[in-house]
Design brief:
The chain is 83% helix and 1% strand. It has helices spanning 2-10, 13-43, 51-78, 85-118, 120-126, 129-157, 160-163, 178-210, 217-251, 255-271, 276-283, 286-305, and strands at residues 83-84, 166-167.
Length: 306
């Protein structure tokens, strides 16, 4: 709430300034990398016709928007700038949607690898551009349902005074009731469990297929490594959802400890978690990496010639 934020500001402006500077150092390089990889995706026609590259580009776009919005919200918070509820609610809904989009897209990418390795003859028929775009649309709709329901509950239960106040832009303003926040945490836990089970299923099936003589061994091994990295990314993204509950307990005990924990959680579970996607496909994929290097060199030559 506002009193806690006031204590944060008064607890040490130098520390907040250092945290803000370090945040920019961590965030903007990844924003630049994501933009560079999105441009690389559009440079080659073959990338726009393969399911895994389309899902990869979609993940980059989601992470890019999320990092920009998160950095904006952090700037408002560190600067102690209060905004109207009508301004914060759409931002919070969009950020919540983007947060949920990431694990679902990761799951879709794991399923695509499972189909490519375990059902290679049907892969081209199943993984079409049209179906991929349909899956992305379904992910967006699914992820938007929860924030939309939270908005309906907020509008019908909150007072006019609450809706007209100025506040900081964090999703907890959508759930002033503690029981509502508890239900949200339980739903996130079950969602994580379901997604994790799907990824474990894909991993086990690919591992079984890797032992078969008819399967490309190298492709299967790469698929196992990819899904392992996806499970790591899923764990980091899910931990990010749990962090606010931990921080809410710590802030009641010690403001200084809360500052350190919140900064660590942001760097580790928000920024680093979204750095896994460029590594999984952007740097490990030989075809995409070669195109990325060619694109970067062309840009450098163009700038130097000017």
């Amino acid at each position: 709430n506002s009193s806690h934020h006031l204590q944060l500001v008064q607890s040490g402006s130098l520390r907040l300034n250092i945290s803000m500077a370090l945040t920019q150092i961590f965030v903007w390089p990844f924003i630049y990398i994501n933009i560079l990889m999105i441009l690389t995706f559009f440079r080659k026609q073959s990338f726009r016709t393969e399911t895994r590259y389309i899902l990869f580009a979609y993940t980059l776009f989601v992470d890019l928007i999320f990092l920009i919005l998160t950095d904006f919200v952090i700037f408002l918070s560190y600067s102690y700038i209060l905004m109207p509820m009508a301004f914060c609610i759409p931002i919070c809904m969009l950020m919540e949607t983007l947060t949920t989009c990431t694990p679902l897209t990761i799951t879709a990418m794991c399923v695509e690898r499972y189909v490519a390795i375990c059902m290679p003859l049907r892969h081209s028929a199943i993984s079409t551009v049209h179906r991929t775009l349909t899956v992305i649309l379904i992910i967006w709709i699914t992820c938007f349902i929860k924030p939309f329901v939270d908005l309906l509950i907020l509008v019908t239960t909150a007072s006019k005074e609450y809706m007209s106040q100025f506040t900081f832009c964090h999703y907890e303003i959508m759930m002033p009731d503690s029981s509502h926040r508890l239900i949200r945490g339980i739903l996130h836990f079950f969602g994580f469990t379901l997604v994790l089970l799907v990824e474990i299923f894909c991993y086990v099936m690919i591992m079984i297929s890797a032992r078969a003589a008819s399967v490309n061994k190298n492709l299967a091994v790469k698929g196992l490594r990819t899904i392992t990295l996806h499970m790591l990314q899923l764990t980091l993204c899910t931990t990010e959802i749990i962090c606010p509950y931990i921080e809410a307990l710590i802030i009641e005990l010690d403001i200084q400890v809360y500052l350190s924990v919140r900064f660590f959680n942001f760097i580790m579970f928000t920024v680093i978690a979204r750095a896994v996607s460029p590594f999984v496909y952007g740097l490990r994929d030989e075809q995409f990496y070669a195109t990325l290097l060619y694109f970067v060199r062309c840009r450098q030559n163009h700038v130097s010639s000017e």
